[in-house]
Amino acid sequence: MRMVANKWKKFEVLKRHSGVAKHIPYMQPFSESALSAMLDRFSFVVAKPYVGTGGGGVMKIEKLGGGRYLTHYRYSETVHNSWDQLIRYINKVRRGRTYMLQQGIELARVNGRKTDYRVKIVKDHTGHWRITAVVARLAKPGLFVTNLCQGGEMMSGRQALISSFPKKARDKRLTMVGVARTCTKLLEQQFPGIAQLGYDFGIDRKGTVWILEVNTRPH
User: Fold this and answer.
1) Last residue of a domain, which of 74, 103, 132?
2) Closest CA to 26 of 13, 16, 41
3) Which of 22, 23, 39, 139 would be 63's cystine partner, CB 3.0–4.6 Å?
4) Mean pLDDT, range 150-160, rounded to an integer
5) What pLDDT does 32 receive?
6) pLDDT > 90 fraction of the chain, expressed in percent and rounded
7) pLDDT reading at 186 higher than 80
8) 92 and 155, same domain (yes or no)
9) Is residue 2 part of a domain?
10) Residue 150 pLDDT > 80, yes or no?
11) How many domains does the chain have?
12) Backbone angles phi, psi at 137, to 5 degrees
């Protein structure tokens, strides 16, 4: 069973499809100039390693104004009083790993906790892809990553969607499942041999569905 660890490579494939591309947040390979431009454009930016699972190494970066910046990494928030201080901190966390930057998405909440959705699709013995799960993951209070290994909590996707979007819960679920199926076709063409995929979707407060990540070894 084939695995594709590089997040950037998977998004590169998906961005070529116009229908899928509108669900992909703006992204750039990490560089100081890209980070500066994105912090001017978005309310926050997420930096993540090209290769990594379980939310490891993922950092949220915000511009506070007055030359100050805020990072949220693991359980700590750090204020940096200059650009150089911020970059030094990011490089310490990166430890030489290749990183990407992703537009921050203000996730809709359930019970006051940031929530995203995992759609799992698996190829069965007959060669057909089947959706095996649509679940919500609620971030541990105070954290911005929802990964279960970092204290996130699982909830039925249907229940969470009804809580956030009472009148549009079914539509949101259909959108996520439809996008996941289209992405699976695209990824299978590019990476023959994959047999399971986990899509992490975020839905912002306006109801837009975003693909945050694609895993070829979903837990």
Assistant:
1) 103
2) 41
3) 39
4) 84
5) 97
6) 78
7) yes
8) no
9) no
10) no
11) 2
12) -125, 120
